[in-house]
User: Which sequence fits this backbone?
């Protein structure tokens, strides 16, 4: 994902300017208008993505392999020369593709990529060390490449921009990645990045995040800090232990990452980040059974982190409830009446590991 393929390009400057000009906790529209929102599908077999579903582990369908041509260790070049290195891996028994980008100047970024069999779409959740993020959606191209896009505000309550990213296979195992952006509803596009991926064993540069997200005065970036640590996870309904979770911050505190390990080699990767333009938190989970759940939200009136998503015709609501430094709860609810009322599905108890 090329938000920062070149040294602090246009997409990197925007969040820095916004952060410098706006007070961190000013009153903002809690429901900014987006032209596209995350899609969800019915998954009654696994309403809580941390828990293994009745699907087999691993994603053997060939559609889950459509982005595997991007897997590898890469040197990335544009007309000016080498602009960075990228390590792209297959993860979760083939159910996800992860990216670790470091620009030549040390600017880092990571992405979580997954195919949703229910909707037939690919998704990429990109986060970088300058508080930039993208939530892209799309699919494989007829030529065997990949194209993902998103329409989003380019500044708070500002005009919408459409980002269109494409990965094309090239001769010799190379990959050409382009990023085009339109600010006139797709009538015209401007190229923001064009880079060629060349397989290489070169070591990655040393990451150098901006420090923006780690600033303790910017409280919005620290909403989930109470969840950082290593935890034993159990179900409140039965008391049964369901796994172990490691939650850490990366990219200069811009990325909140969860690695969950359950029985029978069940695994979950969770990415979370604050969208600095919408002032909204996003979290996405992908499991080793190929289940994907996307959520968005922020502080509720009760002062708890609450996020919502959709499963088919139902809404889901997840609330994180802190209880000191050694315990917190993750409450999962479902609504079938458009959010008027919610019924509790279950609560996961996180107890700090010794």
Assistant:
């Amino acid at each position: 994902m090329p938000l920062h393929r070149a040294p602090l390009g246009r997409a990197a400057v925007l969040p820095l300017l916004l952060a410098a000009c706006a007070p961190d906790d000013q009153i903002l529209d809690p429901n900014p208008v987006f032209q596209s929102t995350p899609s969800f599908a019915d998954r009654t077999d696994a309403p809580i993505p941390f828990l293994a579903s009745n699907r087999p582990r691993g994603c053997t369908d060939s559609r889950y392999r459509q982005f595997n041509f991007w897997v590898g260790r890469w040197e990335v070049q544009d007309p000016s020369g080498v602009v960075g290195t990228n390590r792209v891996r297959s993860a979760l028994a083939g159910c996800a593709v992860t990216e670790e980008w470091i620009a030549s100047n040390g600017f880092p970024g990571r992405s979580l990529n997954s195919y949703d069999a229910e909707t037939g779409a690919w998704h990429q959740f990109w986060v970088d060390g300058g508080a930039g993020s993208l939530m892209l959606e799309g699919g494989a191209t007829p030529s065997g490449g990949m194209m993902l896009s998103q329409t989003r505000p380019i500044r708070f309550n500002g005009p919408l921009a459409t980002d269109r990213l494409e990965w094309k296979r090239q001769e010799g195992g190379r990959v050409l990645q382009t990023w085009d952006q339109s600010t006139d509803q797709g009538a015209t596009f401007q190229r923001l990045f064009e880079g060629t991926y060349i397989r290489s064993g070169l070591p990655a540069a040393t990451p150098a995040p901006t420090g923006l997200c780690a600033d303790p005065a910017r409280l919005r970036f620290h909403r989930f800090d109470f969840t950082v640590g290593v935890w034993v996870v159990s179900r409140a309904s039965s008391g049964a232990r369901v796994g172990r979770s490691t939650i850490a911050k990366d990219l200069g505190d811009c990325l909140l990452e969860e690695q969950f390990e359950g029985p029978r080699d069940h695994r979950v990767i969770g990415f979370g980040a604050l969208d600095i333009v919408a002032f909204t938190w996003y979290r996405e989970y992908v499991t080793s059974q190929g289940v994907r759940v996307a959520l968005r939200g922020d502080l509720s009136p009760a002062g708890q982190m609450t996020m919502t998503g959709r499963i088919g015709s139902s809404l889901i609501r997840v609330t994180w409830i802190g209880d000191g430094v050694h315990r917190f709860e993750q409450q999962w609810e479902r609504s079938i009446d458009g959010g008027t009322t919610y019924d509790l599905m279950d609560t996961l108890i996180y107890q700090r590991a010794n």
Observations:
- Confidence is low (pLDDT under 50) at residues 4-46.
- The first strand starts at residue 72 and ends at 78.
- Residues 10-21 form the longest helix (12 residues).
- The radius of gyration is 20 Å.
